[in-house]
Each structure stands twice: as C-alpha cells, then as structure tokens.
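Before surveying the methods themselves, let us examine one representative protein, pairing a chain with its fold in token form.
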Amino acid sequence: MIRWNARRIPCASLLLSLAAAFIFVCPPLAAHLEHDRTAIAAGEIWRLFSGQWVHYGFDHFFCDMLAFGFLAAACERRSRSRLLVCVTASALAISLSVWFGLSGMSAYRGLSGIDSALVVLLFMELWSEAGRSGQPKQIVIPAACLMAFVCKVSYELATGDTIFVKSLGSGMVGVPLAHVAGAAVGFLVGLGTPATRRLVPMWLQTAPALQRFEQPVLDRIAAVRGGWARTAR
C-alpha cells in the first residue's frame, strides 16, 4: 500500500497557485479582486490580500507564477506554517506600503512582492538547515542567490525601474517598494527558523559575561572623561 505524506506534498502552494490561475482565466474576477484604492477606501478590505493574485497579462502571470510555484513549494516542504504566515503578512505589508507610500497609484496587481518575501524566507530556511547540519558550505549557493536578489532590489530602488517587468512589453509600471516590503517580511518570518531561535539563548548565556566586561570599560571611560574635565578647567 502506498502512503502519502501530506507534509511532504506542497498542498498550500498548489492551492494558492491554482487560485491565481483560476483568477487569470476568469478576467471578470480581476476587477473585483485587484488592489483598487477607491474600492478599498469604500470598505472592500479583502482587496488588500487578493490584489496580489491578479495579473495584467499572460507574461506577467507566467513570470510571477513560475517564481511563486518554485519558491512556495521549497518553503512549504520546510515549514508550511511559516509559508502561510509569510504569504499572508507580506500581502498585507505590500498593500499597506503601496497605500501609504505610493498615494498616486490607483491599482496594483502581481505576486512579485510575495515572491521577494519567499526568496528571503527560503534563504533563512537554508541557512538554518546548514547550521543544524554543521556544514556551512551548503549556504554558499543560496547566499549567492540572495546577494543577486539584493543587487536587483538595490538597482530597482536606485533607478525606479525593474529588471524583469520592462521586458514584458505590457505597459506595466514596476513597483520596487513592493519588493522591499516583501523582502522585509520574509526576513522577519525567517527569524522563526530553529537556528535563529537558538541565537537568543546563546545571547542570554553570554550576557552576564558581557556585563562583567562592561563595567570596567564604563569605569575607564568615566576616568578618562574626568581627566579631560580637569584639563579643560
């Protein structure tokens, strides 16, 4: 008999991907789900979360979904709960960043901001795995990918343009702020990985030693400042 391990199957990633695909093949839904500033102000709060699952065209949908499918599945195989928290929190953070940071933008669509969150979360997961395995070399390739992502976001912030969207030819305007907001959420959620959680007890154990070292240093600084004061007089 074949037993399916539900924890090994990225069910949440699959369902989220299917939701975006269903919305894409049903264009009338887009107008009711996109991040529309006027509609949100009128009380349609669900758009803060649903706007990321709407896309402007096939190229936009394909690029976002290709990245989301891979990243979400990789994160879910490590922790489904962290994936869901990351997706939900980043969707809200991105919508709020667009709302408050880009007041002139009337509508927003796309998963690229959530993809940015998952890039950082996946790096944190892989870093945690490398720490637990005692093989730090495992983090080299993920670290290189993260550095490439940081360079991409830095370029977008510096130029106000995006690297991938402009090649789609669909007349869309990229939103680098959404990528930064997503990456920040991915980092914060990634702090919940086991290796990161161990840093807190380690710090607490070393804190008394640091305090014993701190007092002589403070006394020395006070003595030096006292000497300066006497010299000034």
The two ends are 90 Å apart (CA to CA).
